[in-house]
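BUG-344 | component: ligand-complex export | severity: low

The export step for adenosine-5'-diphosphate jobs runs without errors, but we want the raw record kept on the ticket for reference. Input record follows.
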Amino acid sequence: MTTVNIISLNKTYPNKPMPVLKDFSLSIRDGEMVALLGPSGMGKSTLLKLITGIERPDSGDIQFDGSSILNIDPNKRGAVLMFQKSYLFPFLTVEENIGFGLKVQRTSSQTIRTEVKRMLDLIGLLGIERRKPGRLSGGEQQRVALARALVTNPKLLLLDEPLSSLDTEARMNLQEAIRTIQRELGVTTIFVTHDLGEAMAMSDRMALLLNGEVVALDKPENLFHRPRSLAAARFMGVSTFLSGNPLKVQDEAGGFVSRIANPTYEKIFAIRPEHIRVQKDGCGQSLPGVVSDCVFRGEYVEYLVAVGETSVRARMSMPAPMFPHGAQVFVKFPKEYLFEVIGN
Ligand code: ADP
């Protein structure tokens, strides 16, 4: 079991002017699953390459249980990587694929058999050990890839968008399977994804990576409900920002700024789209607006309402009213759901 400390990593690729990782630090507890979340091109895969030893950092350190791994051979670091594609050997059976790493380590065939069986049991694939990868579904292939990664008892499991090529059902099944297995084995894990829902469903903590830096690190529920910065809030799906005094703002259209809250204002308050109310009648704490879009999405209705100069996105779960384009409505920002964010 492993504690991972990533300390002030810097990495610039030789042919690129801008650093990919800037003073990047992250500590991961023993047995924890941390989701590394961020748009593509933000350096997530680069971090995994630095951990596995495919690339070297310009400066900084990576430590497992307090000891640097930077001078250890990549194949002796104990970090295993699982990708979007399973990369199974097509000519080997499921069993042989899973046992491959142990065979390379010259483990006895009796131990390999026992360990492979344990893994097959764990990933719920007992009975298909003699099949070749070509006869497995995408989800089954990823399960085998997971078993192959875990059979060597790694110190750190690195998952690089392992579910993004799967359809929704296989994806949900595998999300649950990975989480259960990861907990059961207690293996420290970094899970890279650009999918917010997946990161929230699977991780103990989420690290939000923007422009080579961790801009937020917290439990999914805290980051979702109370992101501390404007950038983190935007990434978490917040698009309405109010400036000034949250009590005043609800009465005065003039005090209301949305989307791009001006950072020169002293205080910026944010509100999640599902906490904004769109209603036919006004009340003391609402602002008049005009519906520019109203979309039925099954479990909820999404509204785009022009309030003054700005456009407010709201989401109300069913049953919720539908309004035609151009309808006059009132938008309410319940003050108990307003939270303060810092400007960057
Ligand atoms: P992410 O995984 O978040 O999508 P990456 O780590 O793959 O991000 O890439 C971050 C940036 O580094 C991108 O601009 C990418 O083009 C660049 N990059 C990645 N690998 C290399 C490389 N080997 N040489 C040069 N630039 C690279």
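Assignee comment: Attached the raw record above. The pocket of adenosine-5'-diphosphate is lined by residues 13, 15-16, 20, 38, 40-46 (CB under 6 Å).
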